[in-house]
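Thread: "does anyone have the structure for this chain?"

Original post by V.I.:
We have the sequence but no experimental structure in hand. Need at least a predicted one for the grant figures.
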Amino acid sequence: MRHRDTILVVDDDSDACQALGGLLEESGFAVEAAGNGARALARLDQAGVGPDLVLTDLQMPVMDGLELIRCIQAREQAPPVILVTGMETRDLCTRAGGYGAVECLVKPIDADELLWAIERALACHRAAAPPPAR
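Reply from O.Q.:
Generated one for you, tokens below.
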């Protein structure tokens, strides 16, 4: 295993969460799951170390993926967010980017494309992060 970055997978489809979680764990990531945007925000509000990246579906009850992205980006030290959707539209991906998503991937997700997007998002996020306090 190369690393133990933590990814929070947000999807109301438990089968999708398990499939993505399995792929990510096999690739060396620690995985947490949340069934909707409100649960994801509650996880981000917990004390301690938060996830290194959020991978969220678009269509979910309670709060959709775009609203979740907006709420995450309003926080201090927000982790990068990748949006996953079954709706392939340039407008949607442009809106997601405007809300702060670093990637917009269309289902069905290619495993290599997903892992590459995650690695790129984490690398860019680390490069932009301020150095740790002494």
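V.I.: this helps a lot. The longest helix spans residues 111-128.
O.Q.: and The chain has one domain: 6-128.
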